[in-house]
Amino acid sequence: MKVSALQNARYAYNPKLPPILRKDIATIVPVTGGKTSSVSDQEQIEKLFPNTYGLPQVSFTEGKNKDCHRKMNVAVILSGGQAPGGHNVISGLYDALKKANPESTLYGFLGGPSGILDDKYIVMTDELIDEYRNTGGFDIIGSGRTKLETTEQFEICTKVCRSHGINAIVIIGGDDSNTNAAVLAEYFRAKGENICVVGCPKTIDGDLKNECIEASFGFDTATKTFSELIGNIERDANSARKYWHFIRLMGRSASHITLECALQTQPNVCLIGEEAEAKNQSLGEITDYIASVIAKRAADGKNFGVVLVPEGLIEFIPSLKVLIREINDLLAKTEAQFNALETVSEKIAFVEDKISASSKKVFDSLPDEIKGQLLADRDPHGNVQVSMIATEKLLIQTVSKRLKEMKAQGTYTGKFSAQNHFFGYEGRCAFPSNFDADYCYSLGYNAALLAISDLSGYLSSIRGLSLPADKWQAGGIPITMMMNLEQRHGEMKPVIRKALVDLDGGPFGYFAERRENWAVETAYTFPGAIQYFGPSEVCDQSTMTLKLEHQA
Questions:
Q1: What sign does the dihedral 403-408-411-414 (CA atoms) show?
Q2: Helix (H) or strand (E) holding 91
Q3: Judgement on whether residues 228 and 214 belong to the same structural domain of the protein
Q4: Alpha helices per DSSP H over 191-241
Q5: 288 among known catalytic residues
Q6: Same structural domain for residues 295 and 371?
Q7: Are 472 and 257 in contact (CB under 8 A)?
Q8: d(CA 286, CA 266)
Q9: Side-chain half-sphere of 536: how many Cα atoms within 13 Å?
């Protein structure tokens, strides 16, 4: 297979590890802390996880590891959407297992969780792993979105694991995938099965984090990729000087990606969904804010600019949030009846007839295109797919209408011409940055130690990420520690709590102090392409979010 010069160079990159993981594996041992509890709903979560609730946090230190050399058969699964660095998680996992015992085997189940249900796998080898080191994508074994959540599925997993003598399963995924990992770990413990389940925190969205999981892998590379594109557009806007670019960014409900990209590129407007909710902002108020910035710049002869819009913004606008909740609940109860309708207009009429008067008023105010997107196929939890809603196009329409009103009133004299963009898939499979290459390799290597130590129900954790890798710390976090109850398909289910943008945190505070200046001044910054070679201050930096969250 012909490869690029960059790809050959990345194959040769040697990822950095935390100091403890550089030791001889026979000298690395787990140390446990005190009992933990879930972030909320403690009694209910404990009842659901009687065998794995309250596990202690784990760190690794030097000692004598009597279990390290035992032969292990380990399964690895990639679950959910792609994120840069997944191949390095598998590489780190493979290398650690082979260092512990060259006879150990790593099974890569194909196409996500369905691979283990269908018993479709490949056995990892040196030659195969070496083809994927430090590269983007999940194509080494593929991914999928099948949920491991039913007793029938768990029984199949048990049979497949028994047939191959598998001692541990490593699930590389986001909050839902790792929730499923916790449920599977509980099932195995309840049944007395000696199969360890370990998770690794993956998602470019940045919403799988807490005090113990400082970042999900892929976020660094994705935001740097998006920021390069945004910087390019800013440069183009400042050159052509005639377009307003509305850029919607992937990120699900949370606005972490949008905020990080704003910190890196300093756009004229950046909307944060969590702030819209906290301020109880309406779509009209958000429209007025954008229009006011456009008018101020126009008065200075600047009929151009850049607006960043988080994918999940529409979920945070209170009136729209109520509307979406009503629609989700309605369609969960009337799924068969709703799906039998053939046209979008029939579906719109069906919903309008059954939601509250206040929500109907909000629904009627939306363009038909947005109405149709709100009623499109639901996600696996029965909720609206925010990625299907073209919020940037909606804002262009509402802002354009408002500017026409302002022009009629004499409060706006500029010209408004808009371009719309959506950045998402462009960042999911990029060559991982040095940070993500190092972080992911460390997560996989660390996951192997958790599996060897039979620490089931844990998420691989590397801390100190805002510091150089030689100061990183390795350990494990009980997955149940991160759980709460949320409504899914009309029922309360245990899930890992998503981390939203903290409006009292350092990253948002830094942004809030500067956005008024960015609005009227053309203060764009241009991050450029991800750099892999050169000074550490250019190549090995973490996100601004991490730095601002952990600054002294």
A1: positive
A2: helix 86-100
A3: no
A4: 219-240
A5: no
A6: yes
A7: no
A8: 19
A9: 5
Q: What is the number of domains present in the chain? A: 2
- Do 238 and 341 share a domain, yes or no? yes
Nearest residue to 86 (alpha-carbon basis) of 217, 220, 223:
217
Same domain, 103 and 145: yes
* Beta bridge pairs of residue 270: 308
As given in the structure block, the two tokens for residue 324 are 């979406």
Of 95, 175, 205, 540, the active-site residue reads: 205
Domain that residue 103 falls in: 16-30+60-218+432-478
pLDDT tens, per residue, the chain with 552 residues = 678 898 899 999 999 999 999 999 999 999 999 999 999 999 999 999 999 999 999 999 999 988 888 999 999 999 999 999 999 999 999 999 999 999 999 999 999 999 999 999 999 999 999 999 999 999 999 999 999 989 999 999 999 999 999 999 999 999 999 999 999 999 999 999 999 999 999 999 999 999 889 999 999 999 999 999 999 999 999 999 999 999 999 998 899 999 999 999 999 999 999 999 999 999 999 999 999 999 999 999 999 999 999 999 998 998 888 888 888 888 888 888 988 988 989 899 999 989 999 999 988 888 888 888 888 866 665 666 766 788 999 999 999 999 999 999 999 999 999 999 999 999 999 999 999 999 999 999 999 999 999 999 999 999 999 999 999 999 999 999 999 998 776 678 999 999 999 999 999 999 999 999 999 999 999 999 999 999 998 999 999 999 999 986
The reply to whether the predicted model has a pTM over 0.90 is yes
